[in-house]
Design brief:
The protein is of the alpha+beta class. The strands form two sheets. A seven-stranded antiparallel beta sheet has the order 1-6-5-4-7-9-8, with helices on one face.
């Protein structure tokens, strides 16, 4: 991909109208100094089911994905996992398409041009595992909690849910197993 095309894609992403025309989108490094202290984030954590239509900027998506299940040290993730399986994959769904979060390269890999969001939120994180056992469900719960605490600490609205069109997501995201949890994220509706 040419430098000019990369710059064009990044400028488009600055307003986060993600374009799935790019196969891979590099994300910004995580901003490790943003947000409230963890105790204030816990105090502010609540589920919100109504969202503003305002799209999330790339900086918010980048930090959200890293906090949810990014790599915070070589070979290790921000979310623990049973037996260190690190089995949870995170898909980002927006109105312009769906991407797999590549934690090793802190980037997004395009998987669909369809709007696969499972709520009215501008972004939905879909958590999946290639395993089908209780450990995977536990790991998905831990990863979703990372997303929720990040949102509470940075002023974003979010809620976790298992109500989703699993067959559609499995088909369009090309999954081996049904998705486990969806976390809808956006700005709260005023």
């Amino acid at each position: 991909m040419s430098f000019t095309k990369n710059v064009s894609i990044l400028l488009t992403l600055a307003s986060v109208s993600l374009s799935s025309a790019a196969e891979t989108v590099a994300l910004n490094p995580p901003n490790l100094s943003r947000g409230d202290c963890v105790m204030k984030a816990f105090a502010n954590r609540k589920s919100a089911r109504t969202f503003s239509e305002k799209e999330l900027p790339l900086s918010d998506l980048s930090d959200l994905l890293w906090a949810t299940n990014g790599e915070n040290r070589t070979g290790k993730r921000t979310a623990p996992s049973a037996m260190n399986r690190q089995d949870i994959k995170v898909y980002l769904c927006t109105k312009s398409g769906a991407w797999l979060y590549d934690h090793k390269n802190h980037s997004l890999i395009s998987v669909s041009d369809m709007d696969l969001r499972q709520s009215s939120a501008p972004a939905c994180l879909v958590l999946v595992s290639d395993f089908d056992d209780a450990w995977s469900e536990l790991d998905a719960g831990i990863v979703s909690q990372n997303a929720l605490i990040f949102c509470a600490g940075t002023g974003l609205a979010a809620y976790p849910h298992t109500t989703m069109d699993k067959a559609l997501l499995k088909r369009e995201l090309k999954l081996n197993r049904d998705p486990l949890i969806c976390v809808s994220v956006g700005y709260g509706k005023q």
